[in-house]
Amino acid sequence: MYAIVEIAGQQFKVSKDLKVYVNRLANEEGSKVSFDKVYLVDDNGSITIGAPAIEGASVEAKVLQHLKGDKVIIFKKKRRKGYKKRNGHRQYLSQIVIEGITVGGAPKKAASKKVAVEATTEEAEVAPKVKKAPKAKKEDTQE
Q1: Which helix (H) or strand (E) holds 15?
Q2: Among 63, 61, 64, which Cα is nearest to 3's?
Q3: Measured between alpha carbons, how far is 98 from 3 in angstroms, rounded to an integer?
Q4: Helix (H) / strand (E) containing 124
Q5: 35, 4 in Cβ contact below 8 A?
Q6: For the sheet containing 2-7, what is the strand order?
Q7: I want to staple 68 with a disulfide (CB 3.0 to 4.6 A). Which of 1, 10, 85, 90 is the partner?
Q8: Closest C-alpha among 9, 8, 37, 2 to residue 95
């Protein structure tokens, strides 16, 4: 079983007992956190897709530690001008472990699509057909 979930503005494919590095979360180390923006769940071949998110689905995780990622070097150069800039940073990250994926409810997309199809067919039956008026002919005048 796996899910695609949005965590701190990024989407991750997660499964149970998976350790993931995400952008720094405000939660304390050792605390539990729940993510509600679950976009897709695959339960042994049974795929549920949300529109945009699945109602009632959530992913529970535990914050293991806060740390800094590897150094990223930014080097800028303009050739033949003598311009060189070297800069870098280390991203603030949180390591979390996924404890469980819960699914509750049917996907919204299937229901909303069916309603939309029925609405368009009703409008087509109710709307009268309008015939186009014939084009006006140019009168031939000789002067």
Answers
A1: strand 10-15
A2: 61
A3: 11
A4: helix 108-126
A5: no
A6: 10-15, 2-7, 38-43, 46-49
A7: 90
A8: 8
Which one, of 123, 121, 16, 28, lies nearest residue 61 by Cα? 16
Give the span between the Cα atoms of 12 and 143, in whole angstroms.
Answer: 79
**Token couple for 43:** 């339960």
Residue 108 makes CB contacts below 8 A (sequence gap 6+) with 50, 51, 54, 55
Q: How far apart are CA 41 and CA 5, in angstroms?
A: 9
Residue appearing with tokens 């769940």: 41
What is the phi-psi region of residue 8: left when phi exceeds 0, alpha when psi lies from -120 to 50, beta otherwise?
Answer: left
User: How far is Cα 135 from Cα 76, in angstroms, rounded to an integer?
Assistant: 66
pLDDT of residue 19: 97
Average pLDDT for 28-45: 95
